[in-house]
Design brief:
The protein is built from four helices and eleven strands, in the order αβββαββββββαβαβ. With 172 residues, the chain is an alpha+beta fold. Strands 2, 4, 5, 8, 9, 10 and 11 form a seven-stranded mixed β-sheet that branches. A two-stranded antiparallel ribbon has the order 1-3. β8 and β9 form a beta hairpin.
């Protein structure tokens, strides 16, 4: 059944053109016609759309600009996960440090390919993981008590500032 929002706009066709990993927030692209879907899918196939993500990592990248060009394949040991593997498909991600903090780094990630969990796998490869990512890192959330020296714990305990994988699809 169509929602009132869809019906009020006269939308009769709506298909997602690409996907985001489940814990990732941000920009999604939908096609309103089958012809647009085919055209956009072709553009993605040829890697035309430039994608940019913002990520908060635990630790620090080894340089202000890092390019990871390592093939990615499904993990046989962990179904639903990916890993760096010589037999995998080509994968390239450009990382740029936006700001460094004590114990954390704000990063811009620009994947040139679209492999499953690519940014997360490539960050793991350079020994940085996303804040709050239990699949490719320790899953450590961002807590105010870790960044504010005079933090006073409330009786009900501390809730994370960021409790999920800190990855946001910023632009497409």
């Amino acid at each position: 059944a169509d929602s009132p929002w869809v019906a009020s706009r006269g939308i009769t066709y709506l298909a997602n053109v690409h996907r985001l990993d489940a814990p990732t927030s941000g920009v999604l692209l939908f096609a309103r016609t089958r012809a647009a879907l085919i055209d956009l899918a072709e553009q993605f196939h040829h890697r035309h759309p430039a994608k940019a993500y913002t990520a908060l990592t635990l630790g620090s990248l080894p340089a202000d600009e890092v390019v990871v060009d390592r093939p990615i394949a499904p993990s046989a040991a962990h179904p639903g996960r990916s890993m760096i593997a010589p037999s995998g498909k080509p994968a390239l991600t450009r990382f740029t440090v936006l700001e460094r903090f004590r114990g954390y780094t704000l990063v811009r990630a620009e994947p040139e390919t679209g492999r499953l969990h690519q940014i997360r796998v490539h960050l793991q490869f350079i020994r940085c993981s996303l804040v709050g990512d239990p699949q490719y890192g320790p899953g450590t959330p961002l807590l105010l008590s870790r960044i504010k020296p005079d933090y006073r714990m409330k009786l009900e305990g501390e809730k994370p500032l960021i409790g999920r994988a800190a990855l946001h699809a910023e632009s497409l």
